[in-house]
Amino acid sequence: MSQQLVSGESLDNNQTKAIPSGKNIHLTISYDGTHFCGWQRQDKAAAGKPVRTVQGELEKALEKLAKEPVQLIGSGRTDSGVHAYGQAANFYSSIASMPAESYIPALNSILPKDIRVREARLAEPDFHSRFSAISRTYRYFLYPEATPPAHLMPYVWPLRRRPNIKTLNQMAACLQGELDCTTFAAAGDVSPSKFRYLESAVFYPEGQQLVFEISANAFLWKMVRSIVGSLIHYEAQGKDAAFFKEILEKKDRSLAGPTAPPQGLFLWNVSFSGQRRH
Description:
The protein is α+β, with helices and mostly antiparallel strands. It has five helices and ten strands. Strands 1, 2, 3, 4, 5, 6, 7, 8, 9 and 10 form a ten-stranded mixed beta sheet that branches.
């Protein structure tokens, strides 16, 4: 399992490496995370069986095309059971004659059905999916009724009640600007800094579902799921925005609510334009 979703580190002089040769191809990828042990390739087997990861499957497909090992760079890591609509990744192609857009049908013809390449384009040689990213957006899907339809079960959190969206959004409005997010950092998070710059956080209805959307420069390990679980927990207890702000400012993980389950979470978009916060 990965150690954190994404890092907020900047690419400084100590991290700069020689740019590999070949064309730099930028991919936008969607995947159903239900049967994956997260994004990050894992070289060790579990109980004697290979660990299935999204990065691992993509690199196997790229190796079939290139006839040589290919390293794929992701914008960030997602944990077991977490999905993506717009994960970003890049690799350097040694196939000079192959246009970037041709990787869409070529890879999709090899990949398992729970991974799809949505876009492929030629990027600048120094483009880096992780360090060039300005912000990430996640969406978390909740189903307020008792029993979601079967086809939605792997992608929503069934709440069995309908929360007060106004109260949720009053609390979520506190999640804006540069904040110390220690309260919502998992115990195993190894990030040197718990500060993140949050652009927005909001709940809104979408059909019978309730969606939580949050954007930031980067996220701590399990941070989004911790925020969602805490907000739903606090709202059920009748808490308000003042209480949530106090919890956030105390920077005490023990005050967070239960962590929301992984199946409702999607890495929705990675943006490479706008103001870099840090």
